[in-house]
## 1
Amino acid sequence: MTLKSKLIAAVGAGLLVLSAGALAGESTTAPACCTAHPASETQAASDLRKTLDPGQFTGEVREAYKVAQENPDLLAQLHCYCGCDRTNGHKNLLDCYRDHHGASCAICTGEALEAKKLFDQGASIETIREALRARFAGSASN
């Protein structure tokens, strides 16, 4: 067997051992650059709640920011139909209230207030999503 063949066989055997260990539930150590740093539940909950202070706004906008502040887990499960996912990189309706975007967007305000109203009536998240889609999808000018 040549040196190249021995090297390939050794690497292959090493990969098989690592794969078998992972399948058996044994942990393998990842390089430091690839190690995940999961947030604690407390940190994750804290991050979820970070929205702008509703007190700096007035009227319906204040109410929408209040909904976001008090119900971050609800808004985090909803899509925003104003197009901010493409223009601002928002991942969900809650993101609109982490900055000033929600203050200047009638779609965001309408979605947050409608979501809260439906939630208070006992609607499921699926029902709320469908209602928002029916009312707001296609509202943003493209």
Note: DSSP finds seven helices and no strands in the chain.
## 2
Amino acid sequence: MQQNNQESTQVIDVRTVEPRHRHPLIFKTFDDLQPGQHFMLVNDHAPTPLYYQFMHERTEQFTWDYVEEGPEVWRVQIGRKNS
């Protein structure tokens, strides 16, 4: 995980994180966001199951914007909605 300063986007690169720890890390990072903040998720596969988990567990609370969609790297900007 890298974070440069308050002005930069926090990047969570889960490609080197043990799979069973990925979703808990991502949800903790999301839960620590203030409204309007976001982070960049970097993954080695399409994060579709994670998206559905967000839809179920954080309904109406998040934004999800693909920045890169494979085939080797996926980048998704995940944010906390303002209201």
Note: The beta strands are 10-13, 38-43, 62-69, 74-80.
